[in-house]
Design a protein that fits this description.
Layout (H helix, E strand, L loop, with lengths): L1 H34 L4 E9 L8 H23 L4 H13 L20 E7 L5 E7 L5 H11 L4 E3 H10 L13 H16 L25 E6 L5 E7 L20 E3 L4 E7 L1 H6 L2 H12 L3 H15 L4 E7 L4 E2 L6 E8 L4 E6 L1
Parallel strand pairs: 3-4
Antiparallel strand pairs: 1-5, 1-11, 2-3, 2-6, 5-6, 7-8, 8-9, 9-10, 11-12
This protein binds aspartic acid (ASP).
Aspartic acid (ASP) binds next to strand 8 and helix 7.
């Protein structure tokens, strides 16, 4: 009894000391967690009429594996304190190097039977942007776009001049065999046949549609990435082979700043995919940003407004991905499917194809 009452104060002081020590330590730790800047990346691999029946389980796995590889490449950059610009470029290069997507190596064929690729990148901190259109020899058009942004006084270079500039900058160059895939060639032959059957397709505005009819292969397959880094900077990038059987010289929305690609630290970073002519007419990527800036809508509300209302009303098919400065993400699309994925510093991640 004596010894018990004797040791109690000692134990009490020890507990008190431990309690004080831990209470000093723990709030600091949880505060650290709370104040750690959020970061993350969202990617897409194109939207379109993707039917589950068109994909074997093996092919579905190949797509989701490649999306995850691209997400991890971009996320690793962010995790190591890299910039959102480096992250979107790293993610897109993985998809451009794959034959699965309509960008870089897997690009579709234009009516001329050649590949004509477009890409853009934008820095939300400075509003600097770079883009290339109609390039034929550049393995990674997103890197060429970045060279235009960083090493030229211009925003958009097209055709031979863009190919030449990319080569001067040290971008990987290849001949047409590198970009050839049987799958894409067959899509072109099919589209040419359809064109013969329906030579004068028009859309709801009575505009000629330079693209095969509804029942043909409409898997667009463009790739895009948007990211927020630990410094709070946003970036967006998009890369595409465009649309099968497009007229030679046609440029889509992807390399057009404000249409298919846009980033602004004040609002969000956006990359679009879909029927480019509609995205150009509706200045989609900038419209999402403008709804946030001028109307105070959230990223999700703005994205839905543009994709599910404005574009759907004119039958403009496609989708977009977006991220804002708080790390909120959105991935709306009005087609049956969109290859897409995200990875966030909150621990959440996913890669999906269908709705
Ligand atoms: N938007 C691209 C274009 O029109 C196509 C796509 O997203 O798949 O060139």
């Amino acid at each position: 009894m004596r010894s018990y009452s004797h040791t109690n104060p000692l134990k009490r002081s020890l507990f008190l000391f431990l309690f004080l020590f831990l209470s000093l330590l723990c709030p600091a730790q949880s505060q650290d967690k709370q104040t750690a800047p959020p970061f993350g990346i969202v990617i897409h691999g194109g939207a379109g009429t993707l039917l589950r029946s068109d994909l074997t389980p093996e092919l579905e796995k190949a797509y989701t594996d490649k999306l995850n590889e691209a997400l991890d490449a971009g996320y690793k950059v962010l995790e190591n304190n890299g910039s959102s610009l480096d992250a979107v470029e790293a993610a897109i290069r993985v998809l451009e190097d794959s034959r699965l997507f309509n960008a870089g190596r897997g690009s579709v064929f234009a009516a001329s039977g050649r590949n004509e690729m477009d890409a853009a990148i934008m820095d939300g901190k400075t509003l600097k942007a770079g883009a290339v259109a109609g390039v034929r020899t550049v393995k990674n058009p997103v890197t060429a776009a970045r060279c235009v942004m960083e090493k030229s006084p211009h925003v958009l270079l097209v055709g031979e001049g863009a190919d030449r500039f990319a080569k001067q900058c040290g971008c990987g160059i290849a001949d047409s065999t590198y970009f050839y895939t049987d799958k894409r060639w067959k899509q072109l032959l099919k589209a040419r046949e359809e064109e013969k059957l329906h030579p004068a397709l028009t859309d709801s505005l009575g505009m000629l549609v330079p693209y095969p009819a509804a029942d043909s292969d409409k898997k667009f397959g463009t790739v895009g990435a948007v990211a927020l880094d630990k410094q709070g900077n946003l970036a967006a990038a998009t890369s595409t082979g465009g649309m099968t059987n497009k007229m030679s010289g046609r440029v889509g929305d992807s390399p057009l700043i404000g249409a298919g690609t846009y980033a602004n630290n004040l609002t969000c970073a956006i990359s679009c995919t879909g029927h480019g002519e509609y995205f150009i007419r509706h200045v989609v990527a900038y419209d999402v940003s403008a709804l946030m800036e001028y109307k105070g809508l959230s990223l999700e509300e703005s994205g839905r407004e543009v994709i599910m209302k404005k574009l759907l009303a004119v039958k403009g098919e496609g989708g977009l991905i977006g991220i804002d400065r708080m790390g909120n993400m959105t991935l709306p699309f009005n087609t049956p499917g969109m290859y897409r994925g995200f990875r966030s510093s909150t621990g959440k991640r996913g890669a999906f194809i269908f709705q």
